[in-house]
Amino acid sequence: MAFDIARARAAYPALGEGFRHFDAAAGSLVAEPVAQAVDAVYRGAVANRSDAFAPGRRAIGIVADARRAVADLLGADPAGVVFGNSATSLVYLVARTLAQSWGPGDEIVVSRLDHDSNVRPWVQVAEEQGATVLWAEFDPATGKLATDQYRDLINEATRLVAVTAGSNAIGTRPDVAAIAALAHAAGVLVFVDGVHATPHQPTDVAALGADFYVTSAYKWSGPHLAACVADPALWAGMFPAKLRPSSDAVPERFEFGTPSFASLAGVTAAVDHLAGLDPAATGTRRERLLTSLAAVRDYEADLFARLVDGLAAIDGVSLCPAPADRCPTVSFRVGSQHPAETSKALGDAGICAFAGDYYAWEYFHTMGLRESGGAVRAGIYHYTTAEDVDVLLDAVRALAKQAAGA
């Protein structure tokens, strides 16, 4: 059954404004059921968490529902779901807590393909503890992150490997499961950045071998909130700095202050929305998520091929190299035009596409593009249409002609 794009788009009122959105990698539009769920909390009697009265019990239920929803999305244990303001804040939290036991002689492995939020926190805490940072390099000619290099990078001194499930710059999907297998054979923890990958494919943290997996709801039609999942037993052995009166229980131990109950209700609604993207999906919510996100992956892949082939055929447009099997994200430049200028010209035409390094600092530094403005990023999301792609291609084609004649 073909993916029902009209049905999918109907859930996003903001699309009625007429913009062509290729910016979901920076933050997707919010689905209507999410907005309604958030609104209902703000309009209803919801207090801080308490067993003593109904509004307090509602808050307890909202938090529990959100943990179950994220667990279903990722194939995780609800008792191991920790919420935070952003993926970056959660990586810092885990890094600072794990690093308490690190010291000189210890090593960590990070990747130059990753978003800086899965690089800098680890580098900084390693430096503070006197540990050594080792780098996994991607191939600039192909955009691939070779698995074999981890055989040399991981040893008895390694304490953690941090790697992305999907590059937010070029979409590369490293073989996380194979990398994790090498790490686990040496008794090493694996922290996976799933922020860019989660919206575009089914996720199973156990199959990936992720000891920690972080994702951001605002990348999959939800509110601006993030979650990091791990085995509750792993969380139980970690002790972050916290207020004395706050709960010592897992996962509450890692969540500081009162959460946004409205946002958490939105997280649950976003997961339910994703589970319903394929109306033919049946079974548990987890089963419906797997079916729906597989349909999303296939739909986006076909549309993305149209985009990449179209860009590659335009004289004067250069694409950042990337594997064929990737998340539906491409970075490109138009002649010698500064990427910010390209983004502005597209924006003036109602096309939303970011320019810069998108916090993929190491990637663009390695490619020698960061100082000259990075690139323009175009991403496919499940509300993107073939018409959107054709409008973007026409606009880039016109810009390339202008740049050639300048």
Mean pLDDT: 98
Compute the separation of the termini in Å.
Answer: 47 Å
Helix content: 40-55%
Biggest β-sheet: strands ordered side by side in the sheet: 2-8-7-6-5-3-4
Low confidence ranges = none
CATH-derived architecture of the largest domain: 3-Layer(aba) Sandwich
CATH fold descriptor of the largest domain: Aspartate Aminotransferase, domain 2
CATH superfamily of the largest domain: Type I PLP-dependent aspartate aminotransferase-like (Major domain)
The biggest sheet, with number of strands, parallel, antiparallel or mixed sense and barrel status, is:
7 strands, mixed
Tally of discrete structural domains: 2
Which range does the strand content fall in? 5-15%
Organism: Catellatospora citrea
Protein name: Cysteine desulfurase-like protein
Pfam families: Aminotran_5
Domain Aminotransferase class V: 22-392
